[in-house]
Amino acid sequence: MTLKEDALRYHSEGRKGKIEVVPTKPCLTQRDLSLAYTPGVAEPCWEIEKDPYLSYSYTARGNLVAVISNGTAVLGLGNIGPEAAKPVMEGKAVLFKRFADVDVFDIEVREMNPDKLIDIVASLEPTFGGINLEDIRAPECFYIEEELKKRMKIPVFHDDQHGTAIIAGAGFINALELFKKDIKKVKIVFSGAGAASIATAKMFVTLGADIKNIWLVDTKGLVTKDRKNLEKYRGQFAQDTKKRTLEDAMEGADVFVGLSVKGLVTKEMVKSMAEKPIIFAMANPDPEISPEDVLSVRKDAIIATGRSDYPNQVNNVLGFPFIFRGALDVEATQINEEMKVAASKALAKLAKEDVSNMVLKAYGLKKIKFGPEYIIPKPIDPRVLLWVAPAVAKAAIDSGVARKPFKSVKEYVESLDARLGKSREVMRPIINQAKTKLTSIVFPEGSNPEIIKAVRVLADEGICRPILIGNAEEIKTVAANQGTTLDLEKISIIDPATSALCEAYVPKLYEMRMRKGMVMRDARETIVLPHYFGLMMVKSGEADGMVAGIGRHYVATMKPALQLIGVKKGFKKVAGMYVLVSKQGVFFFSDVTVNIDPTSEELAEIAINSADFVKHAFHDEPRIAMLSFANFGSTQHPRVEKVQQAVEIVRVNRPDLMIDGAMQADTAVVKDILEKNYPFSKLKGPANVLIFPSLEAANSAYKLCARLGNAEAIGPILIGMAKPVNILQHSATETEVINLAAITAVEAQ
To answer: Quick one: which of 230, 76, 43, 72 has its CA closest to 136?
Structure first.
């Protein structure tokens, strides 16, 4: 399946598009409905009529942003119209929500006349807390934003202009510092005169650059004072010079900023730049000159691009979600220059901080340190919210545009952390860690359509080297029928019926099972079964791990795994874990799939194995709660005592682990309950590893969380095996296969 087909399917399957509106108040009973709508809704209406500002207290306005476009300059697609722009605007809404918990209505307007568009947008002010203008062509976009800022008393922000400018500004600050260059003296060449380029040039001036040292090159060449019909936006950067070309301008330049087209800059131009050049080649999808070409002629350069596969990505997602978060939280009347500069400086400072292990793992790196290859924070760094939003909010307060100033920055930062909880994009670090060391993962259900789709992604993205077990022609036919292209240089297909490995595996299998009733004939017949063959590959080292079970009962897959791979040394039991990702955080549930009524000793094993897995694979510090229906012995019952004994066993065998119980589930995860009622508890903060007393409790809990609590369940993960083996749900999806394969790959490293 091609990228085009993947993208179209992604946008069309299930609920169409990428966003939905979810109520924040209960609407289940008749009383709920009478409060949500008539007659109860009249009360806030009366209050707001008396004081319109109360709309921030009684409605969602204060956390609601309009993403507005007329579709005249959409990404690299051009003037495609408002309907065609809608998927992009929905995507913007997703980023607002994902990174800063800002709600968005995307609004696509069929209006080319700037003055009419201004009237339309201005009329929407009562609905929103802020306006994000998006993909509106230059030069109209400058005029539209300027006029709206004059007319509206809420933040108006054209991200195509200021987003790039703010992020590039952060990199600019740090690059100058590293090269010890004076911002007032550096010569800066801009290629491109669109919205982003003009705004970035203005941002550099605001940061301290001399406007006389900025050279702007557009499609007609260098912008000079003798050019006719030059509008004010480019005219402010016009140079009084006889030079006319980009090549002329680049000579002796300290800084190049490209927001134009691929391949515009040559190696010769880079050679002609000043010592220690700073090059921001940000054309998308391909830069004006590649980092490889720059470094081939100038080893002393700092380079930034708009791409994620090179260091120093200038990515707008580092800006707009957090800028609006800060502006909304203090109910700012505008996003002014002070707030933009504060965002740039906050990002610049964050780049100098130590990078968390989670970010390192997400990018498959062992070390990131402030320097030429790290002048801008990584987009998924969760600290960006906690640095940029407070800086923007404080700048709004200090500059007098905040209607709701806060008193304590510390308390505000804590509120930001609580807004998004501890939930993070759990799988991205796992997937990127898997990429750091390629492992081979075997899939016994090689002809299953979901497996084939998942394997294509796993191979293409370098998450693992997949091995499909089955008839090669059958696998290729299934792949062809669903439009999936398998790269057989990255994917192996092995048919046990014809593989030479069988001859080596038969005596090994016989030796392992001969005292369990297996004769040689049985071994020969069994080894050609895909699951046994795959397990023998793992056992013998031809594969690093196995993912299986789709279309099969869980026990039917687990039984041969225990027979051939077995439990890891020093333990007697395996267990099934689910990772539950919710708005409140990331939680690890065990045992969800294997042990029906574990003993105290077995519960202790499950707890230890779960904790070790969480620390190794997810790089999270385990805080283990042993769950029951009673809190710390409040009820005397054998089932409570079983859990209490398990806690003591863990403490004796693994005193390094943070564990407590028996306790109720809400006590385990609600900090206030734990601290106020049970201050003696060994848990420092809410538990993230939850060990259930029985299979029915664990299985029911995870399914209720997933179905009713909107938590995303990742798993099941089989912990405690001697080698990595994981068993899929009977009806696992492509995404679930990818996730479990990535986890298996990390286990195998």
So the answer is: 72
pLDDT at 164: 93
Mean pLDDT of 661-674: 90
Distance CA 616, CA 626 (A): 21
pLDDT tens per residue, range 346-379: 999 999 987 765 677 677 776 788 999 999 999 8
Interval 216-230 mean pLDDT: 91
pLDDT tens digits for range 56-67: 999 999 999 999
Whole-Å CA distances, 251 to 189, 295, 540: 10, 17, 62
Average pLDDT over residues 310-337: 96
Q: Is the predicted pLDDT of residue 245 greater than 60, yes or no?
A: yes
Could you give the CA distance from residue 387 to residue 373 in angstroms, rounded to a whole number? 21
Question: Regarding the domain delimited by 575-720, which CATH topology (the fold level of the hierarchy) does it fall under?
Answer: Rossmann fold (3.40.50)
Structure tokens at 204: 């550099």
Q: Which residues of 325-353 are buried (b: 16+ CB within 10 A; e: fewer)?
A: bbbbbbbbbbbbebbbbbbbbbbbebbee
Instruction: Render 192-253 in DSSP notation, one character per residue.
Output: --SHHHHHHHHHHHHHT--GGGEEEEETTEE-BTT-SS--HHHHTT-B-SS--SHHHHHTT-
In this prediction, residue 422 carries a pLDDT of 45
Fill in the amino acid letter for 105: F
Say what the pLDDT of residue 15 is: 92
Residue 396: strand pairing partners: none
Return mean pLDDT, the chain.
92
Q: Is 191 helix (H, G, I), strand (E, B) or coil?
A: strand
Which residues, 6 or more positions from 653, have their beta carbon under 8 angstroms from its beta carbon?
604, 608
Using DSSP's 3-state secondary structure scheme, residue 545 falls into strand
292 vs 296: CA distance, rounded Å: 6
- Active site amino acids: 37, 92
Alpha helices by DSSP H, listed for 82-241, are 82-100, 114-122, 140-151, 159-179, 195-207, 232-235
Instruction: State the number of CA atoms in the 13 A half-sphere of 102 facing the CB.
Output: 31
Task: Give the architecture (CATH level 2) of 162-316.
Answer: 3-Layer(aba) Sandwich (3.40)
Q: Which of 426, 453, 545 is nearest to 733 (CA)?
A: 453
Task: Name the token pair of 657.
Answer: 């682990």
Q: How far is CA 537 from CA 438, 494, 543, in A?
A: 17, 11, 5
pLDDT tens column, 584-629? 789 999 999 999 999 999 999 999 999 999 998 888 899 999 999 9
Report angle CA 122, 125, 131 to the nearest 5 degrees: 80
Domain at 3-154, CATH homologous superfamily: Malic enzyme, N-terminal domain (3.40.50.10380)
| Residue 155 neighbours by CB under 8 Å, 6+ apart | 129, 130, 131, 324, 327, 328, 332, 333, 334, 335
C-alpha–C-alpha distance, residues 533 and 528, integer Å: 6
Rounded to an integer, the average pLDDT of 548-557 is: 91
Cis, peptide link before residue 716, omega less than 30° from 0: yes
Question: Is pLDDT at 423 greater than 60 in this prediction?
Answer: no
Token pair for residue 517? 């009733």
Strands 465-469 and 440-443: parallel
| Number of neighbouring beta carbons within 10 Å of residue 654 | 15
- Locate CATH 3.40.50.10750 in the chain: 575-720
* CATH, domain 430-564, list 3.40.50.360, 3.40.30.10, 3.40.109.10, 3.40.50.10950: 3.40.50.10950
How far apart, in whole angstroms, are the C-alpha atoms of residue 449 and residue 734?
Answer: 9
Contact between 421 and 584 under an 8 Å Cβ cutoff? The reply is yes
Burial of 230 (0-12, 13-18, 19+ CB in 10 A): middle
418 falls in which pLDDT band (50, 70, 90)? Answer: low
Q: How many CA atoms within 13 Å lie on the side-chain side of 396? A: 29
Rounded to two decimals, the pTM is: 0.67
The larger pLDDT score, comparing residue 190 to residue 227, is at 190
